[in-house]
């Protein structure tokens, strides 16, 4: 049966569900105090507990230290018993205000930094709580009401510590997730060369197609050249053979010409002898003609003497007449012979002159032939060299034809490979875009579904990721992977960064900070450029959209730089604003 005493002391359900606090400051920590129904009276009771357990404080510190050592042995190198004692003193004696939150959260962040498991830390806190409770029971068990009120205050304080501890771990986790997704998206956004790659591949494919067509034409031309070179080589071989044969024939003809020249020289000599014989004949004829004249004269004289003799001289006159006739006939015959000899001399002279002229011509031809023979030899030799070169050129032309044909085949393969690479680039771009979408969904799910209050650091990481995503979305819109309507681009006051930037608490904390003051202008330019890019793309103005993407990227880089400066400032001046803001 339940003791009537404890039944009266046990709080009712309504009392257990009661919320609220009498602390009066602003910020998130007041909500924590209110949710746990922690009041100034509870704090006063904590101080009473501290006095009651003072003799056992070192034992309590050692218990906490050993519990921590069991959870993470390496952590105790940094988190000493002195550090634990300082935290526990603050737990029992520090007023619940900003200084207290700073002290508690620094200790919890130190635990988080040393990678102490949060679940096991909860166990360590429960062991610490149990130790204090049992110590209280030992001290004030005879005053049940006081004991229960002290235990209630202790439990509320422990609940607050555990809530702060879990929030530190979850918020740090969110900061890491936000930072990690930002880094992933930053690396993802660096793959904005896919558009340029696809455009370059399209241009390369076009160039390759043109080169392939030109190569095919060149292959045809080179094949024709190779065929022509082969034909020329064959004809050159024939020409060389004919030239050599012609050289042989000319050599033989040259020999015959020389022989003919010698024969003509002999003929000239013989005609000279003929002229000499004709001259001798003419001399004989002159002698005979003289004899005939003398005979004719004697016959005339005989006739005259016969006439003088009268009858006695008739016979002698007849003889004299016959002799005269014979002499006349001889003279006539000699005249005829002389005419014939004259004609023979004229003809022989003409023939001799002609033969001499021909002989001179032949001798000149022989001299020219003698001069031409070395030239002919050189021509034949040159023709042989031409034949060798032509044969070589024909072989080279055939090799070039084969090489160009191979180039044409390779260019065709390159064209196919380029198209394949373009397909891979297209798939890569779509895969990277899908990956970015998956990363963004994970990021938003972690933020929206866990209902975790974000620290300024986490929020700034998320804001950076938001702006990286806008640049990424506009880029993928231009590539054709995503649809962005102008109305999808909100005002720079309505985005996550804008809401944080224009929040009164943010202004109070950061107003006057150079990076904060400069942030609004480039942030607005990011939104304007994104909206104009979407409008240009909707009108089919791709170049205009690309120009706005460049403007967006420049403004985004400025936003990123300023956010990094703010993040550095927040990190240096970290006062755990999420619990006080």
Automatic annotation (TrEMBL):
Cellular compartments per GO CC: membrane
Domain of life: Bacteria
The keyword Coiled coil is assigned to this record: yes
Biological process terms in GO annotation: signal transduction
The entry's keywords: Coiled coil, Transducer
Single GO term (MF): heme binding
Domain Methyl-accepting transducer: 194-415
Coiled-coil residues: 545-572
Family annotation (PROSITE patterns): CHEMOTAXIS_TRANSDUC_2
The keyword Coiled coil is assigned to this record: yes
Range of residues in the leader sequence: none
Annotated Pfam families: CZB (PF13682), MCPsignal (PF00015), Protoglobin (PF11563)
Gene3D superfamilies: Aspartate receptor, ligand-binding domain (1.20.120.30), Globins (1.10.490.10), Methyl-accepting chemotaxis protein (1.10.287.950)
PANTHER family: LYSOZYME-LIKE PROTEIN-RELATED, METHYL-ACCEPTING CHEMOTAXIS PROTEIN MCPB
Entry protein name: Methyl-accepting chemotaxis protein
Chain's gene name: tlpA
